[in-house]
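> Could you send the NmrA-like domain-containing protein prediction when you get a chance?

Sure thing. Input:
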Amino acid sequence: MASKILFIGGTGYIGKFIVEASAKAGHPTFVLVRESTLSNPAKSAVINNFKNLGVNFLVGDLFDHESLVKAIKQVDVVISTVGHAQLIEQDRIIAAIKEAGNVKRFFPSEFGNDVDRVNAVEPARSAFATKANIRRAIEAEGIPYTYVSSNFFSGYFLVSFNQPGATAPPRDKVVILGDGNPKAVFNKEDDIATYTIKAVDDPRTLNKILYIKPPANTISFNDLVSLWEKKIGKTLERIYVPEEQLLKNIQEASVPLNVVLSIGHSVFVKGDHTNFEIEPSFGVEASELYPDVKYTTVDEYLNQFVLLHGDLFDHESLVVKAKRQVDVVISDINRSLLGDQVKIIDAIKEAGNVKPGATAALRDKVVILGDGNPKAVFNADDDIATYLSEQWMIQEPRTRSSTLSPHSTSFHSTIVSLWLKKMGKPLKRIHVQEEQLLKDIHRMNIISLALYVD
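Output:
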């Protein structure tokens, strides 16, 4: 049976990912929360998500020893994901675990560098030392443990490339600490959560450091920038900050910039993510232990930030820069350009790689507006062009004050039946009654939906 897990600090940044992974993996999952957290509007989305996942809430407090012991006695494993300000207070959790006497394993709040193998300067040195002191306290009490060294969160560092104040990857220039050659490790938060939960009941991770260092996510800053340049099709100006200058910047900066810079010095200058070998005596590597986990690579993660620069009226940019890089195309252009979507269609045809999606005939179910009986007219674009040409319209007197052949006039339901015959499989027909459709029109302001009812 899966171990019962208690989270302390579970509504925080990394905590919410690991709580979700625990619940989805089938572990009876408990989160220690204060009453104020349950009613805090800022936490409502996280709390509601936990409720939907079947997470159990235990009211208590890190500073209330009795509530800690009571909560811990209900579980097998304790995972702490408390924030920086509460790291030193984890000795309270250690004391409660010792008194409860039933915990099979404790995961203290780590989820960064291996704090026993760093070459840091202040203020990062003190932060790392606090985590290291908690390790020693756990070991001194004989509490079974797993320390998770997940290195950098992609959501913190890949979003900005560690550029102070930035909220997106650079587009013109990039500041690189040191010479850019030491390798760092970047992991998506969901993957960190998955690996952590897999380790809970794994005897191979007992009393070990679980390093999350997938090969595809271990990369130097120089190579990271080169990868990004390739994605955006542009060369960035690289501004290198020598170690001497960086140390001066750290001393002159205030909180929190000095913390960010000092961690950057540890990782990007001293290479503290990768400047040692993992020995079986103290550690194991997650992607080797769990090769079945499909983790998000750095390459894949960066794709979400790529903007493809092109123009609706530049056929080459549509075909080469956009269509050939994707599987599905969604057009959201305004009304004045609706007629120009034929340019998108032409580009899709030439690209030849766009998969059938909502723009292709459906194969499982179909939504029919109204009862499907009013007739509509469907004409191929080429036929419309032919009929409207000078030869057929302007010079043909029989077309004056008249309508065209009814051969392309059909019921919506008949069109569906024709498609069923061609496809050789039934479709689920979902009819939207006029009353509901009118509500949808009012809500969505899509007047053209009325075509199939009138």
